[in-house]
TrEMBL record, chain A:
Pfam families per record: CoxIIa (PF08113)
Keyword line: Membrane, Transmembrane, Transmembrane helix
InterPro entries: Cyt_c_oxidase_su2a
Transmembrane segments: 24-45
Protein's UniProt name: Cytochrome c oxidase subunit 2A
Domain of life: Bacteria
From TrEMBL, chain B:
Residue ranges occupied by any Cytochrome oxidase subunit I profile domain in the UniProt entry: 16-487
The family this protein is said to belong to: Belongs to the heme-copper respiratory oxidase family.
Localization, UniProt: Membrane
Any one of the GO CC terms: membrane
Name by which UniProt lists this protein: Cytochrome c oxidase subunit 1
PANTHER family attached to this UniProt entry: CYTOCHROME C OXIDASE SUBUNIT 1, CYTOCHROME C OXIDASE SUBUNIT I
EC number: 1.9.3.1
Origin species: Neobacillus niacini
Keyword terms of this UniProt record: Electron transport, Heme, Iron, Membrane, Metal-binding, Oxidoreductase, Respiratory chain, Transmembrane, Transmembrane helix, Transport
């Protein structure tokens, strides 16, 4: 019994509720989006001028 | 800061003045929206305006009503209510000044509108010289600006009263933000007021024959860029300080919010040259300096993005959401007060990315005066800002009129938000692509005598007409909701949501309220960015220009 409990305890790897990793991923996505749009217009610029 | 000593309800006497502003704002929305629809139809090449109505006339009506009237009236009404809610009911003196401001703005709007309808002022909402309007148009615009100063003075008076009664305490966040935006507006409008009073009015009255176009445009853009931040900051007030309460979460950081507002005050004014990058007569070195200052505005923008994501994630995790993006799903998507401003926030991602491209000095050549620019500000102003204003109206209008947002109206509100979004994807998306292919903005022509290049643009212009029609449907829905909430919704109590910071022990540093310091730095940056170029412009002035009237009279 005790053994089983220990096992299940181990499994409930609690996610830190103060984690901001979703925020980190979101701002990275935002940054990449800005860079990609900027670079595409930059190449258009190089192509034309 | 946490102790809500102020009343939870906006005093009805203050509510009345805020509502007066909203009536004008939503009338402007309805009329301006109709013009927008007509513009997209004309530009598609499939439709001509009847009765000798001129394209540039309706474009002026659209730009003035949407860009200047809707925004200024809504913002002043909202901020007036927000200060009343968080810093306490306005004094009778402040309220009287607010009412005078409202009427001065309204009379000015009527003066300007009359001249546009009489075809005496088809000068577009930027009214650049040497296009010349009737003097009553300029005087009307002056009234709008002076009226808004009075409106702002009322807010500042109530803020000052709160500070006096609560020495040593940071002011309520929403009041602080409203005052920052008011100060930004006052400093910015000094530019447009100077060109109107000292150049355009004497010239249109015939007191002088010519106008210095370069100075006039420079003064306009000294005002024109902070103008867009004047539109945006009230939306940020909602995102930072109101949306957290609506979703049941907390403001990520009160101090971060204040700091970002201060950075907007500092860096949104000394940057007007980024609208004049293609213009002769300004030293490229000074243009570059202002480009650098423009890029500083990215800092508070990204601070805002971070802190909003963080608010949402922390709320989601407190509700038990797990995984990288689990928090996203638990947000209250069936609450129009959240969803509609959220669509606005999401639209700010492509809007901001486009803005960085516009401001990138030489790259401005790719997009300058193309309809890409129009696509850009229909994302920033006409989506991010306007949808947030709609989201605010869903609770603020019933709060002020003693009614309730019913389930049916909430649902219609969400539908409205998505209709707007879809319409804008078509219209603004097509504008961006057509602009990259060189399609011009502000042009009544669509086929250009069957030129091959113009033929490339036609499909995009048809997409804009489709988008414009969907958007017009969105405007009809919004007007229905507004009229319902103002006059017909069942009586009841609707909350004015005011968020609380997560960490209440963390008191905002008092340096944020040190106006001498921030106004001093603002002035120093402006003087630094503009003094030498201005001297240069005056010493090497271009010849003065007579006025031009490029449109037909009735
Ligand atoms: C039904 C919704 C709307 C439609 C169909 C629409 C359509 C258009 C179109 C086609 C133009 C460009 C015309 C040209 O350059 O020749 C335009 C310009 C403009 N729009 Fe809108 N728009 C809508 C809503 C809004 C809103 C809500 C705002 C502001 C908050 C706004 C602000 C402006 C401004 C400031 C201009 C620039 C006028 C100028 O270049 O002088 N529009 N609109
Ligand atoms: Cu700008």
């Amino acid at each position: 019994m005790a053994k089983a409990e220990l096992k299940s305890n181990k499994k409930t790897e609690i996610e830190d509720s103060s984690s901001l990793k979703g925020t980190l991923a979101s701002v990275f996505f935002l940054g990449i989006f800005i860079v990609v749009t900027w670079v595409s217009v930059y190449f258009l610029f190089l192509d034309r001028f | 800061m946490s102790s809500q000593t102020a009343k939870l309800k906006v005093d009805p006497r203050d509510g009345k003045l805020a509502m007066a502003h909203f009536y004008v704002a939503f009338i402007a929305l309805a009329l301006g929206g109709l013009m927008g629809l007509l513009q997209t139809l004309v530009r598609s090449g499939k439709f001509e305006l009847p009765w000798g109505i001129d394209y540039y006339q309706i474009l002026t009506v659209h730009g003035v009503l949407m860009g200047l009237v809707l925004t200024t009236f809504f913002i002043m009404g909202f901020q007036y209510a927000a200060v009343s809610r968080t810093a306490g009911t306005h004094s009778p003196a402040a309220r009287r000044i607010g009412w005078i401001g409202f009427w001065v703005m309204t009379v000015g709007t009527i003066m300007a509108a009359t001249m546009v309808l009489l075809k005496e002022a088809s000068v577009l909402y930027t009214f650049y010289a040497p296009l010349k309007a009737h003097w009553i148009f300029y005087l009307g615009m002056t009234f709008v600006v002076v009226g808004s100063w009075l409106d702002g003075a009322a807010q500042i008076m109530t803020y000052a009263k709160w500070r006096k009664e609560n020495p040593g305490k940071p002011s309520p966040l929403l009041s602080f933000m409203a005052v920052i935006n008011t100060v930004l507006w006052i400093v910015a409008t000094l530019g447009v007021a100077s060109t109107v009073l000292f150049q355009l009015l004497p010239w249109s009255l015939g007191l002088v024959d010519t106008v210095d176009v370069l100075i006039s445009r420079t003064l306009f853009w000294y005002f024109g860029h902070p103008l867009v931040y004047f539109w945006l900051l009230p939306a940020y007030m909602c995102w930072y300080a109101i949306v957290p309460k609506i979703i049941g979460g907390k403001i990520f950081s009160d101090s971060l919010a204040r700091l970002s507002f201060i950075l907007f005050l500092l860096f949104s004014i000394p940057v007007g040259f980024h609208h004049q990058l293609m213009e002769p007569g300004i030293d490229p070195a000074w243009k570059f300096l202002q480009v650098v200052l423009t890029f500083m505005v990215i800092i508070p923008s990204l601070m805002t993005a971070f802190s909003l994501f963080a608010t949402f994630e922390r709320f989601g995790r407190s509700k038990g959401a797990t995984g990288l993006f689990g928090w996203f799903k638990v947000l209250p998507w069936n609450d129009a007060r959240f969803t509609v401003p959220f669509i606005g926030m999401a639209s700010f991602i492509p809007a901001g990315a486009g803005g960085i491209i516009n401001a990138s000095n030489q790259m401005n050549q790719v997009v300058h005066n193309t309809i890409w620019v129009t696509g850009h500000f229909h994302l920033t102003a006409a989506t991010s800002v306007v949808l947030t204003f709609f989201g605010i109206s869903y609770w603020l209008v019933p709060h002020l009129t003693g009614r309730k947002l019913t389930k049916a109206m909430n649902k219609l509100g969400i539908i409205q938000g998505w209709v707007w979004f879809i319409g804008m994807v078509f219209m603004s998306g097509a504008m961006h692509f057509q602009g990259l292919l060189g399609g011009p903005r502000r042009s009544a022509f669509s086929t250009y005598g069957d030129a091959a290049q113009a033929a490339e643009w036609i499909p995009y212009q048809i997409a804009q007409a489709v988008g414009g029609s969907i958007l017009f449907l969105g405007i009809i829905l919004m007007i229905i909701i507004f009229v319902n909430l103002a006059f017909f919704a069942p009586k009841g109590e609707e909350e004015f949501p005011v968020g609380e910071a997560e960490n209440l022990e963390e008191k905002a540093p008092m340096i944020f309220e040190n106006w001498k310091l921030w106004l001093g730095i603002t002035a120093a940056l402006i003087l630094f960015a503009y003094t030498i170029p201005f001297i240069d412009m005056i010493q090497n002035a271009p010849p003065g220009s007579p006025g031009f009237k490029t449109w037909n009279s009735w």
